[in-house]
Amino acid sequence: MIIDDILDMMDDMLDNAASVPFAVKKSIIDGDQMRDYINEIRLNMPPEIKQAKLIVRDRQSIITDANKEADTIIRRAEDRAKIMISNDEITKGAKAKAIEITNQAQAKAKEIKLAADKYIDSVLVQTEECLQSKLADVRKTRQAVKTLPAQNQQKK
After folding, report:
1. CB 30 within 8 A of CB 13
2. Considering the entire predicted model, what is its pTM?
3. 3, 38 in Cβ contact below 8 A?
4. How far is CA 89 from CA 27, 30, 55, 78, 93, in A?
């Protein structure tokens, strides 16, 4: 039987019921028949209604589970945010350290270049002095060589 049919039969039963004397809107109905109709309704209830009743009954459990899942998602997101912030701080620290090391390396390179330039200059000064000394010796020897033929001719 379809629930609508059973409800129609219950409605007919109430329409055809005898009125209670001296009572307004009170009727006498067959209780066993009414109970049979109610049982028929329960037996023929659509599965969606039964399912809805189960959902309503389990509503608090569903809400609790949803809240737990939401809390877990929020906690994971907060943990991930902390890790990302920590990684960002580590990255910033590493960049600052890299800049510091680069600046130190550039200062050291400049210092080494200045020292190398100074050393090269001192070596070149020594070389120049040595070359001037040798050049003076060459000039003396040349002068001596020029005077030798004149001395040889005078001796003859």
Report:
1. yes
2. 0.39
3. no
4. 82, 82, 48, 16, 6
Cβ atoms of 17 and 34 within 8 Å: the answer is no
Reading the block at residue 81, the tokens are 């945010």
The alpha carbons of the chain give a radius of gyration, in whole angstroms, of 58
Tell me whether strands 27-28 and 18-19 are parallel, antiparallel or unpaired: antiparallel
**CA geometry: angle at 29 spanning 27 and 30, to 5°?**
165
79-106: per-residue pLDDT in tens?
998 888 888 888 888 899 999 999 999 9
pLDDT digits 0-9 by tens, 56-86? 888 888 889 999 999 999 999 999 988 888 8
